[in-house]
């Protein structure tokens, strides 16, 4: 039997992979597109998994990004439950070998392989009742576990961990968050926002332990988790444990194929890898840093996946990619909404605007506004997102003046 062939093969059935397929069709590409994903379901939204899906506000059907009929009409051939084991690249394209030894030839390859949950390297991490969250299957297991009650211990005070903690607490569970660092969200935001989050979650009844290293997960005689032991000897009771200690880009295929990889697959602003017939997009990539020349940055967000996929599709067709927008991100944690506009990494200072139940942190580099983190203040988020795109700034000396809105300060300029 002849080897199947795709003009474009997309490895990865998430937001980025689907985005490339969609954009190719929108640009008039009439060739064959095959998209292979490891999960047994069509591409779906991941942000609700740690929020509405756990609380029961979202169901499986509402997660779906595209209906099967749409994909058929667009001529996008989707292979579900198929894992690509390796790819061989040539000057004309190459072939991909699946884990069942079947293969498909391609002219162009898209790597949208996403990321996998980082494992917790302590004894007991394999016990029943210990979960991590990357897929809808993971979320379904966690949702069922939370229905059985707690206590719940969340290991990791990042966005995913705090979203799950807030959702579980709202359902009445006893929740403890264990964070190894000295503050929440340490990797992604300034200390004032960390403190704001700490106060908000503690006020909601979540027990948060900072500077707390986990050394062991303790189990029962039947292999179910029953507690989390900390380095100071404290044993936290737990019937459910969520491990939220970050994600690792899935670069295995790219590395085997000889593409340049560091933490992620290295791409340029147009999604190009180090092979002329291969592009990459989404959580599996690292791209040029917007503020620090020569450095690379991984941006794990839906917005990044969508924008990178558009750029990659243009590149596949030999077109100039569209201009990138300002990166943005959001996190719903109970009644608190955190929104981020721009990239704060690389800042040389920040100004805090805090009042009542909301906070805005404005980040500067060389006197120019480059980003903002806000909690419960969508007006500031929108104002900064628009200003950074238009390269407008505010006078840093006046940025903390609460008698003036951020929008007014931006209008007045530096």
Q: Overview of this structure, please?
A:
This protein is an alpha/beta fold and 414 residues long. It is built from eleven helices and 25 strands. It has helices at residues 15-26, 52-55, 60-63, 68-73, 136-147, 159-170, 191-203, 252-256, 302-316, 378-389, 406-412; strands at residues 5-11, 33-36, 76-79, 84-90, 93-98, 103-111, 115-117, 130-131, 152-155, 175-178, 207-209, 214-219, 225-230, 235-237, 240-243, 247-249, 265-266, 278-280, 285-288, 296-297, 328-333, 336-342, 349-355, 358-365, 368-375. Strands 1, 2, 3, 4, 5, 6 and 18 form a seven-stranded mixed sheet that branches. Strands 8-15-9-10-11 form a five-stranded parallel sheet, with helices on one face. A five-stranded antiparallel sheet has the order 21-22-25-24-23, sandwiched between helices. Helix 1 links the parallel strand 1 (5-11) and strand 2. Helix 1 (15-26) crosses helix 9 (302-316). The longest helix has 15 residues, at 302-316. The radius of gyration is 23 Å and the shape is globular.
Describe the SSE topology.
Layout lengths: L4 E7 L3 H12 L6 E4 L15 H4 L4 H4 L4 H6 L2 E4 L4 E7 L2 E6 L4 E9 L3 E3 L12 E2 L4 H12 L4 E4 L3 H12 L4 E4 L12 H13 L3 E3 L4 E6 L5 E6 L4 E3 L2 E4 L3 E3 L2 H5 L8 E2 L11 E3 L4 E4 L7 E2 L4 H15 L11 E6 L2 E7 L6 E7 L2 E8 L2 E8 L2 H12 L16 H7 L2
Parallel strand pairs: 1-2, 1-6, 2-3, 6-18, 8-15, 9-10, 9-15, 10-11, 17-19
Antiparallel strand pairs: 4-5, 5-6, 7-16, 12-13, 13-14, 19-20, 21-22, 22-25, 23-24, 24-25
